[in-house]
Amino acid sequence: MVARLAHPRVLLALGLFLVGAVLAFHAWNGPSDAMLVPRFVLTLWCGVALAITLVEMSRVTGLGSWSLSTLLVLMAAMLIAAIAVASLGFLLPALPLVALTLWLFRLHRPLPLAVGTLAIAGGLWFLFHHVLLIRLPTLLTSGAL
Description:
By secondary structure, this protein is mostly helical. The chain is built from 6 helices and no strands.
């Protein structure tokens, strides 16, 4: 039974849950003037990661028959992009994340993929930066992005 639970997909899902739980713990115990939205996003991350962990455990033990590998890939990419935002700003990590998301949602033609990536990532940046006046993290070297 323990050997079955050491399956790479179960370990990846458990790792994503543990990383999210540690980040959420530090976010909720952080300074009170921090924004509340990231705390709720991390809490939702933990809930989804826990659900994925349980589904993967049931699938490996033979109780389930369907896969969430696309969701696991997307969650791992979101975690990498969230960590990269601190040093690369918002726009640079958002571009490959949006492209990967569109690719995983079966948009494989190059032109619509490129246009969709630029429109969504650039549109989100424009919405937050100019419309909602929420300053997103910038590239540390120049501040241009």
